[in-house]
Structures are given as C-alpha cells and as structure tokens.
Input
Amino acid sequence: MPDPEADPAPDSSSPTASSSLLESEDDGELDLPYWLTSTQEAANTTFLQMVRRLPRLLRDAWMLAWRASPRTTTAVLVLQLAAGAAAALGLISVVGVFEGLLQAGPTPERVRAAVPSLVILILTLAVRGLLASAAAAANGRLSPMVYEAAEMRLLDLTTRVDLATFDAPDWRDAMERARDRGIPAAQQVVDFGIEVLTGMVSLVAVAGVLAVLHPVLLPLLVLAALPTGWAAVRAARLGYRSQLRLIAVWRRQRMLAYLLAAREPAGELRAFTVRGFLLAEVARLLRISTLEEIRVVTRSVRSNLYGQALSGLLTGLAYLVLLWLLWTGRMELAAGGAAAYAINLGIGKLRELAFSVNRVYEQGLYFSDFQGFCDLSVQHAEPSPDRRAPERFTEIVLDGVTFSYPDATRPAIDDVSLTLRRGEIIALVGENGSGKSTLAAVLAGLYRPQRGSVTWDGVDVTRLHPESLRDRVAVVMQEPTRWPLSARLNIAIGRHDQPASLERVQESAEAGDAHEFVMELPRAYETLLSRHFTDGADLSGGQWQRLAVARAFHRDAPLLICDEPTANLDARAEHDVYQRLRDLASGRTVVLITHRMASVREADRIYVLDHGSVIEEGDHEELMAAGGLYAQLFTLQASAYQSA
Ligand SMILES: Nc1ncnc2c1ncn2[C@@H]1O[C@H](COP(=O)(O)OP(=O)(O)OP(=O)(O)O)[C@@H](O)[C@H]1O
Ligand SMILES: [Mg+2]
Output
C-alpha cells in the first residue's frame, strides 16, 4: 500500500482580498518547519517502532501518576487488577455453566450441574461491578491530580530556566506545545493507560481460557485483532503528523485571535482600520487547519474501514476453525460453546483495547512533547551554586563581556568592560538597538555572558546563587510589567517576601511620584489595576512607569538599574524623579539608561554604546571635550530645546 502520508500537503490556501500582505509567507505553510526536525522523526516512526514504544509510554504515565499521588495510583492499580481477576473467574464459571448444560444426560440434571458455576458467575459479576466502580472513583480522583502535577511541573520549569532560554525559538515552541497539548495529554495518557491495563488483564483472562480449551484458538484471536490494531496505530500517526504540520498555523492563528479580542491593541486595531485585514488572515489560517483536519479524518476512517473489514474476515475464520474442531471431534461440544463465547468476548475486549491503545498513542505523542520539554528545560535550568552574593558590594566589574541572543548573527554586547562602584551614578547612552537594555540585563544577572566575566567584589557571578544576586538588584524595566494586582501590591511585590505596611508602600510610592495619582483612584491603594475585572482601573503609560519606579525603590537594593524610567513621563515628573533618584541613591549604585541627555549630565560616569561596544566613556565634561558621539547627541538635543 503506498504511504499516503508521503503526499505533499494540499494547496489549501484560500486567497482573500486583503490577505495579500502575508501571502508571501504562505509558501509551504503546511510543510514541516526546519525547527521541527526532531519531532518529525517521531512522526516518521514505523508501525513496529510505534508498537515498541507502548511499554515506555505506559511506564512514563505510571511515573507521572505516581508523582501526582502514590496512594491513589496504587489504589487504582490494585482495584483494576482485582476487577480483572474477578472477570477471569467469571469467564471460567461461564465455561463451567456450558459444561454443565451441554453434558450428556436428562435436562433437569444438566441444569442442576450448571447451578454452582452460575452462582459463582453471579457473585463474580457483583464483585467485579463493585471493584470496577471503586476503581472508577479512584481514577476520577487521580486524573485531576495528574493534571495539577503536570501543570505545576511545567510552570516550575518555565520559571526556572534562565532568561536567555526564552529567546530561543525552539524552546519557546516546545513550551507552547507542552502547554497547549502536553498537559491535557499527560492527564489522558494516564487515563487511557489505565484502560489499556484493564483491557490487558481481561484479555489475559480470555486468552488463558481459550488456550486451555484449544491452543490453536489463541493465535487466531490475535490474528483477528491485528488489523484493528494496525488501523488504530496508523490513525494515531496520521493525526500527530498533521498536528505537527499545523502547529505553526495554529500558533499564528491564536496569536492573531488574541489580538483581535484583547483590550490593549483594540484602539490601534480600529485606528488603523486593520480589522478586515486581520480577520481575513485568521480566516485563511482557520481554513488551512480545517481542510487538513478533514483530510486526516478521511484517511483515518479509510484505514479503520480496512482494519475492521479484515478483522471481521479473520474472526469468521476463527469461528470456522472452531466448527472444524467440533466436526472432526477434536473438541467437546461443551468446550466449543464456551470457546465461542470466549472468542466473542475476546474480540470485543480486543476492540476496546485497540481503541485504548490508539488513544494512548495519540496522547502519548503529545505527552512525549511534554516530557521532551521538561528534559529540555532541565538542561536549560540555571546553575545554582550555594555561595550567596554580598549584602552590599563595593565594586562590580565587567571585563570583556560579550553576549549574543540565541540564533543572533552578531553579539548584542561586544567586549564591554566597565566598573560600577558603590554610591556611583552611571549612565548608559546610545542609539536604539545599541545594546543598553541588554547590558542592563547582564548587570542585573538576568543574562549570563558567553565571554568575559562579571565580578562582584572579585567573585565571579557564575559562582554565586543567581537569586541571591538578583536580590541585591532593583530594576525598572524598559517595559515594566503591568501586574493585574492592586496598586499596593504592584509596589509591594518589589519585596513580596517581607510584610509591607501601608506607610512603607506610601513612602515608596512618593519616591516614584506615584502617591498622588494612586490616592485619586476609586479605592486608592486597594484599587485593582486591571480593566479585565469589575471595578478594576487602568493607568496611563506614565503612571504605570511611576509605579514601576516606586516598586524598584520599594525593593531597596544596593544596585538600582533604571532602563528609561522617565520615557513616558512629562517634563515636571521627570525632573522630580531624577531629583529623588539622586537624593535616595546615597549609598546605592544607580545605572541610568536614558535618551534624554540632560538627565545624564550629572552622572559620575557615562558610557556611550554603539553596536554593542563602548565607544566613549567619561563624565559629561570629558565627553563634551572629546567631541565624539556623546557631544553630537548632546548638542543636538540642547539646540532643539533652545530653538523651541
Ligand atoms: N530578546 C531578544 N532576542 C533577540 N535579539 C534581541 C532581543 N532583545 C534585543 N535584541 C537585539 O539586541 C540588540 C540590542 O538591543 P537592546 O534592547 O539592548 O538595545 P537598546 O540599546 O536598549 O535599544 P533601545 O534604545 O531601543 O531601547 C538589538 O539589535 C536587538 O535587535
Ligand atoms: Mg532598551
């Protein structure tokens, strides 16, 4: 049979009037992207490889369940096995009933002979029912626990990896897959894994009985089941392969769908009248995935049809062999009756098992994504040496520091050396993209340089516990996070590990020039700063920025890094913030990044960055005298003010 999966993806793009801008990217939208090669291997696995994967899948599922709750997992397992044993006993008593009824002699005697087996049958049925219910209850408890454990594991890892990992596209992609499908799959692999186990126990019971009745019947039963199993595994492969093809399409579609429904871009969306354009793009992406899914379903149904038909024929063969055994006197009539019953039961069980195995595979493929992501993240976890950073440092020295973002062609920071001493105000200036924010992130211990060293009082930071280092740093990011928390918590989160009195929060707010506008909010410090909730309020860009400055002050760390803290502030607020920065900085080291040259005049030292390198350094006077880039930028801004 030719492998239909080898077909190239159909041309399923449906051009719409306004999708032309993105059309150029459309080439091979459904081809596997180059960064999916490892998972492509997974999808290319053969039938036999898939069969061999089953034990590992079941083992991984078991380990996950065990981690979620050893007690409940044990309960599920014991109850399922006991229910299986009861089923086996029931089957044996069915044989007894047949033997009783089909023996030679008058009918009342035959019925009487069948009664003890019948009683056992009824009892085992009752016991099995009870056990199965108890197992279902235990399983119902286990399932959400597994979900919880998987979700927590994912979040634990995403927050543990170093920041640069977030800039690595393959990791981000693995994370999205693990989060979107991996976590539900983890839960389902456990659920269906239990089903497989139950199915296997029942099947072993049936097989045992059949083997005792006549050995030839057992291989026949297996043969009859094979085509169904083949169809099930094939359907799972088809599904997964198509998911791999679609993942990039889905991600883009979801991103756009989010933007179409989110508050933040709602204004710009209308202002630029891009509604039709974006809707058409979403529609195009949805269409691609719909067509692909329909294609996969059609193929799966076709495989299933072949599988079922062949299984049906082989079942017929098993019954024919059974008749032949009876005809030629190789088997007793009583045993024949029991065998017919067992074959019927066995086929039913096999079909259920094939279904469960299919589901385990299907979910198992996503589950492997989850496992793969966890392994990848563990590799990217930050090393955490025990040594703690000094409470207060005297000197931080960067020596020949080079840092490149993952996959970048050139370093964002190139061979930078600089020194920060306690109590100094250091300014970083330079044009857009010159590497100021990246350097700030290296200083804050968020990125580890690939070359060169960062030392705190002579100790290389790679030998310090990363969290202890960051504990000594307060950062006002270029784009501060707008935490959907109350105004008070938005500030207090700067030192969330210490109880914060309202007075202390207010002091920090005053330092960041945020107190006044917070008091004007409907519930002052308790106002929830998110429009997504009832009674929530939103702030202006500049107000958010002042809150971020307040948060950094609240952190009360010996090193304060401000990445354009006043970019959104009006002139008066900016002046106030710098005034306070200087007042409150006594004893603290401040690294200031800004495009407003007037604000860096009073810095102890200014570093001018260009394409990731420091091209000038010195104080204002020195740099003006040197007449380089700094002098140019300064004069440009000063003359702009004078002519205004
Ligand atoms: N997360 C990232 N992943 C990959 N490249 C990045 C990332 N952030 C920044 N870059 C690149 O690194 C270089 C330096 O960026 P950086 O943000 O440090 O500049 P900057 O001096 O702060 O600029 P601006 O004045 O615009 O804030 C730029 O070329 C930018 O494209
Ligand atoms: Mg920046």
Notes: The pocket of magnesium ion (ligand 2) is lined by residues 436-437, 478, 563 (CB under 6 Å). Strands lie at 395-403, 413-421, 425-430, 451-456, 459-460, 473-476, 559-563, 589-593, 605-610, 613-618.
